[in-house]
Amino acid sequence: MLGQRFIGDGLRGNARIIINGVPGGDLGMFMSGPTCIIHGNAEHAPGNTMDSGMLVIHGSAGDAVAHSMRGGTVFVKNNIGYRGGIHMKQYEVEARPILVVGGTAHSFLGEYMAGGLVLVLGIGKEKAMTDRGIGSGIHGGEIIVRGEVDDYLLGVGAKKFKFTENDLERIAPIIKNFCEQFGYDPAEFLDTNYTRIGPASSRPFASKYVWE
Amino acid sequence: MTLGSVPPKFKVSIDRDQCMDCGRCIENCSYGVYRREGDKILIESRKCTACLRCVAMCPRDAITLTEKPVDYRSHPVWTREVREDIINQARSGKIILSGMGNARDLPIIYDRLLLDACQVTNPSIDPLREPMELRTYIGKKPSRLKFRKTESGDVELETKLAPNLKLDTPIMIGHMSFGAISLNSQLSMAKAAAERGTYMGTGEGGLHKALYPYQDHMIVQVASGRFGVNIDYLERGAAIEIKIGQGAKPGIGGHLPGEKVNEEVSRTRMIPLGSDAISPAPHHDIYSIEDLVQLIRSLKEATEWRKPVFVKIAAVHNVSSIAAGIARSSADAVVIDGFRGGTGAAPKVFRDHVGIPIEAAISSVDQKLRDQGVRNEISIIASGGIRSSADLAKSIALGADAVYIGTAALVSLGCRVCGNCYRNLCPWGIATQRPDLVSRLDPEQGAVQVSNLIKGWTLELSELMGAAGINSIESLRGNRDRLRGYMLDEGMLEILDVLPAGA
Asked: Does any domain span residue B101?
């Protein structure tokens, strides 16, 4: 496979798609149900506006990973580009979208995020996140990053919260699932050395405007 | 406060000799202008928005409303509006938001274009006697047709045709979302669109279940917030529209305040109850024309290439080059929204100052596409301030295939253009989600009114065409020879490719 776009686009049901090589853009867009295992890197916007199902990428992925995703799971073993998890949103509790990145992500991670979870593990990195603009305009959901996150990396409207045992309990099944997919030992990640980033307000722009 | 209050915008008075004290004004005013104290109806003019609901419902015509009851010292530069905006921002330090479309007193090009009619040398056509062909197809047209002969000697079309929308009249209803407007407004317009053989847009608010019966007449929108977008939604629509920009606020996104996100709106948009619905300025998966191609094709793949895909842009300075790019992007129609386009809420500075007039945009886009030989690749839908059948006819003569109407359709439902759409208090049941107000708008009756408007304009368009000796909309399209400019400068005449009156 080399660059075939739109794999799983709008696909429903419980199919399992194995991709050897590099799929093209919009992998799993509007997808509702199927699982895609990618043995290689992925291009632009895998998981774009995805409803449910799973993408497991044994490599890195391009920009806008999980853009506007409403449900389902995207696991990326290595790194992702800019705008990962941008405008991810949640409708019902059971349809919570999840993006887990093993390595690191470029700028604007979780920008305008309205729901769901973005988890960055920073495997093999000194610091999990070093790019700016994390969670600009975030008004729902959470971004959890392994280790400390420097204040100057946060976007407008994003705020750091303490990562508690309770939080760990919530995300432990997700970490275990991720490790299982890529053959990592989950024990390494099951502590509270994370930073949780969420919205400073659910109405980030409410104070910006005045009526005529 | 050192600034004090600014004068009320309107003064309401009741002719007490006429008044029968029925209290309908009190019941109908959702802004709280009227109240009863003892045996008297008291008036608080400052709360009035001039929505005229009370005037319309008063059985005795006893209510009078005056605009600007207090004069400022008149000044051509420091107008009342300029002074009041400064006072507002001195108080708040914020961006001023406003409702409805551009409210500046700029010349309207439509009003300076005149249509032609036949006299003596070529007879006009009577639409009563001759059929007038108004049927319009929106979508790609083949540049040439190939036929083949079958064994039985019949001729068959070999060229594969791209999916098109079939319109019985070139008037469609533009995208106004559930959330911004009520379900009863959407239902009224959807029923009317189905009855008139045309289409309406869903806006970026998802498709409510109650609209499923009309889905064959609905164009589903995919905008930067992707609200309500899933495979089911895409499959239901007759066509799909990617909204890049909007004439009322080019270059910026939008957001529906959490107060308007009730249970139904939340379910239809697929977002949590009471959360702000924020649409970012760009689509974050489109940062280039190549990315746009990818989204268009992704939508086509998801719907098995069975539906036309439109791309809507605001009319901005380089609109013709942008449209030429879109024409090569596998889109089937480009929607151009002029700077007079309406909105539920937009920053005032954008509403009044950003973008260009739709008339100039239609003309330059049509010209550019023809110059590049790709006009058949894409249909042009014009919108933003189309007020009458005359504006419609002129749009088509300038090069549009069809138009979207928005505000005009709302006016046919009762809207009086008071511009307070963002307050969730619309007394006409249009721009509100408050159940008691929404129930004031009966979708059955509303559908009749919207349908009547489209019917009336369609009849007028037939008459205008007949008078000009044209019996098919195809012959009016891009026919600038049937337009003349009046009081337009030379530069504008050149852009419009129209001769001055008398020439």
From this structure: no
Q: Enumerate the residues of chain B whose CB falls inside 8 A of the CB of residue A9.
A: 298, 301-302
pLDDT tens, residue by residue, B325-379: 999 999 999 999 999 999 988 899 999 999 999 999 999 999 999 999 999 999 9
**What are B58's two structure tokens?**
């008063």
- Residues in chain A with pLDDT < 50? none
Q: Is B251 exposed, middle or buried (0-12, 13-18, 19+ CB in 10 A)?
A: middle
- Quote the CA–CA distance of B424 and B446 in Å, as a whole number: 19
Asked if residue B258 lies in contact with residue B231, where contact means CB atoms within 8 angstroms, the answer is no
- The chain B residues in contact with chain A (CB within 8 A) are 88-89, 91-92, 94-99, 224-226, 229-231, 234, 255, 257-258, 266, 270-272, 275-276, 278, 280, 284-285, 287, 291, 294-295, 297-298, 301-303, 347-348, 419, 422-423
- Nearest by CB: B272 against A51, A115, A207: A115
How confident is the model at residue B217, as a pLDDT? Answer: 98
Asked if B358 and B335 count as a contact pair (C-beta separation under 8 A), the reply is no
Instruction: Classify residue B108 by its DSSP letter.
Output: P
Show the low-confidence residues of chain B (pLDDT under 70): 1
* Domain end call among B79, B94, B109: B94
**Do A194 and A147 meet the contact criterion of CB atoms below 8 Å apart?**
yes
Residues 6+ apart with CB under 8 A from B375: B327, B366, B369
* Domain tally, chain B: 2
Cα dihedral B46, B52, B58, B61 in deg (nearest 10): 90
Q: Which two tokens stand for residue B445?
A: 């009756």
CATH number at residue B64: 3.30.70.20
Question: Quick one: B370 and B232 in the same domain?
Answer: yes
pLDDT in tens, A76-127: 999 999 999 999 998 876 679 999 999 999 999 999 999 999 999 999 999 9
User: What pLDDT is stored for residue B92 in this prediction?
Assistant: 95
Which among B224, B298, B422 has the least Cβ separation from residue A26? Answer: B298
* Structural domain containing residue B42: 10-94
b/e A49-85 (16+ beta carbons within 10 angstroms → b)? bbbbbbbbbbebbbbbbbbbbbbbbbbbbbbbbbbbb
Q: Is residue B131 in some structural domain?
A: no
Domain boundary (B62, B77, B94) is at: B94
Q: What does the pLDDT read at residue B181?
A: 95
User: A16-142+150-199 sits in which CATH class?
Assistant: mainly beta
Taking the CA of residue A186 and the nearest CA in chain B, the distance in Å comes to 32
Residues of chain A found within 8 Å of residue B297, distances taken between Cβ atoms: 5-6
Mode of pairing for the β-strands spanning B63-67 and B10-14: antiparallel
Residues in CB range of B145: below 8 A, 6 or more apart:
B157, B159
Does a structural domain hold residue B219? yes
Q: What is the pLDDT of residues B169-219, one digit of tens each?
A: 999 999 999 999 999 999 999 999 999 999 999 999 999 999 999 999 999
- Which single residue is written with the structure tokens 């700028």? A107
What pLDDT shows up at residue A203?
Answer: 74
A185-201 in b/e form (b: 16+ CB < 10 A) is eeeebeeeebbbbbbee
Residues B80, B177 within the same domain: no
What phi, psi does A129 have (nearest 5°)? -125, 130
